[in-house]
Amino acid sequence: MSKSHELSNPRNTNVSCCPWKLKGRGSATYYVPAKWLALDETGLSRKPDALSSKSGEVLSSNPEVLSSNLPLLSEEPEALSTKYDETQRNQLLDDLPGSLAARLGAIGLRHPPHETRELVVALCALRDWRVEELSLVLRRNPEVVRQNYLRPLMRDGRLAMTNPDEPNDPQQAYRVVEEAIR
Description:
β1 and β2 form a beta hairpin. 35% of the residues lie in helices and 9% in strands. The strands form two sheets. It has a three-stranded antiparallel β-sheet with strand order 3-5-4. A two-stranded antiparallel ribbon has the order 1-2. The protein has seven helices and five strands, in the order αββααααβααββ. It has two domains: 3-51, no CATH class; 86-180, Arc Repressor Mutant, subunit A.
């Protein structure tokens, strides 16, 4: 048997380059550590140098080396990134009439989609809204707003794009179609 065949044959347990020996056959195949790993009865190596990827380098068992510097972690909750920026959301809500802002405050994350769509129509009747703005005030992912609310409303002819020639325009906004205002 050639040397290259010995290395490529996974069943060959005589090759000493691998740290594991193959035992069993078929679905009952399992691996056992090779002798050169020098494992003790607990399964840990008695020679830590054998486990290092670089010769002479040993893993540290000094707990002071591990970082436990808690002041580096932020203790200010406002410094942590949130999914929805509440300051921007509050600015958008301040520009709305009180009844509409109250309706927005009343919807939860599991509000029925048809009621949320009606809310989107009411918002777009006031001014043109971009997807990012709608996602902030609705507390929804922009893709969810696009798929679950905007596309069905455009399909029904209740909303229209402000720039229909460029649907992927980053400044694309949505407005109410005049016939849809009830």
